[in-house]
Amino acid sequence: MTIGRTLVADFLRARREQLQPEDVGLRRDTNRRVPGLRREEVAELAGISAEYYVRLEQGRDHQPSEQVLAALGRALRLDDDGFAYLQRVSRVVPAIVPTDDPRPGVSTGVLDLLDQWSHTPAYVSDRNHDVLCANAAARAMAPGYLDVGSNMLISVFESAGGPDRTSDWETAARALVDSLRFHGDPADRRLQEIVGTLSVRDRGFRRMWASHTAKPMISGVTPSFVEPFGWVDFNWQTLEVSGQRGLFLTTFFGPAGSPAAAALAYLAASINRDIAS
């Protein structure tokens, strides 16, 4: 079974099990034993034969057509991100020549840009959430998390044990997991290493990864502890680096007059003092 067929099969199965009859206008009968929809119900909603859908979910069929993918997306109530992921994995083929170090480098222009943003924390990561570079403001705002060479996903899961996992932590961790699935290359040995490591270490990661939710990280708000301000909510925005596929630039900022803006000004002044001393 090829990588693509396995991914499609796993994704369809996970999404089917998460969708309830009431979600698609079906009546729940007392004899239902499956956790979500039945295979034949998905097939009927998509307008395809039950036998063909079973082959897809078992990874025994060749590439489904765009029409079939669109029908399955509607039947499974996929959002735009989920459907984009389904389209991508249905076309996945194994890497022909795996490389020892597939992580791309960051261009000099991007490095110079980050250094000039003295008041704007910013970092560049790859599709696996490995941090490739970070400016001084970013390292000061999130010490340990944005060190070059660290992996944000592993850092987040190692930062809190079970009882210490708040709703904010859960939201941040799930966003990273969903983004890893959306952007990750299944044939990439680094992706396999991260997923394998966290699957062994952490039950919470196994639960999130098994949900098969795929969503890019675009923007949001994240809390960070900054002395002497305490916990501060920073806005963040992630942009794909043009011309360097699989690299993403993330910046943090705060509205004028907000605690985040005050904290960023304080960090910038502290960095300048350290440079001058």
3D architecture notes:
- By secondary structure, the protein is an alpha+beta fold.
- It folds into two domains: 3-89, 434 Repressor (Amino-terminal Domain), CATH 1.10.260; 108-276, Beta-Lactamase.
- The chain has twelve helices and five strands.
- Mean pLDDT is 88; it is low at 95-101.
Q: Span between N and C termini?
A: 61 Å
Q: Class by helix and strand content?
A: alpha+beta
**What is the CATH class of the largest domain?**
Alpha Beta
The total of beta strands comes to 5
Number of domains: 2
Strand portion = 5-15%
Based on Cα principal axes, name the global outline: elongated
Give a short account of the largest sheet.
5 strands, antiparallel
CATH topology of the largest domain: Beta-Lactamase
Would you identify the regions where 5 or more consecutive residues have pLDDT less than 50? 95-101
What's this, in brief?
This protein is an alpha+beta fold. It has helices at 3-18, 39-46, 50-57, 66-75, 80-89, 108-116, 136-141, 152-159, 167-183, 189-201, 203-210, 259-276, and strands at 122-126, 131-134, 219-226, 230-240, 247-253. The chain folds into 2 domains: 3-89, Orthogonal Bundle (434 Repressor (Amino-terminal Domain)), CATH 1.10.260; 108-276, Beta-Lactamase (2-Layer Sandwich).
